[in-house]
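ok so i was messing around last nite and threw this chain in just to see what happens. nothing serious, just curious
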Amino acid sequence: MEENEDLDASEIDSHRSDDSSEVRRRFHDLMSHEIEVLNQILVEMISVVENISENTIISQLKRCFECIDDMMIYANQFINQAQLVKMEHFIRFYSLYDGIRHGMMKTLTIINNLRKRNLFQMVPLVKDLTLDLDEIKVLVSRTTLEQVKEVLEGYRIKRLYIRRKIENFI
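result:
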């Protein structure tokens, strides 16, 4: 009877491991997709920022912030799912770093282009986007679920402030 119980316990541990791997994979895939979409928007902004209206720039920035919001939603879902499968260890997602870092570099290019056009009033919004990307970078580098929760809580507070700033431009 004890042998049977040991087999059942190892089966459950194996199943949890598979579930936790699936949760990690799904989070990585969702984040990768949003980072890719964000970087596409930023590339588009860089290529046309010298010729587009302020309203279009604001619209594209809103799309960027929506990508960030989606990433934070995915992080919340990840935490909930990780807790359900009793994930013990949070593995950093360093593979997402490059895409985030490239996005941050693109925002700096956009800031320079806005300054060239004398659109200084929009620079703070792009700086906020850069800081949000930095928070995503911090988020994917955390080692425990508790640390991820702390990053998300800080973002919730900051996000309300950024939304108000965007709405003031419209």
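not much to say yet. Confidence is low (pLDDT under 50) at residues 1-17.
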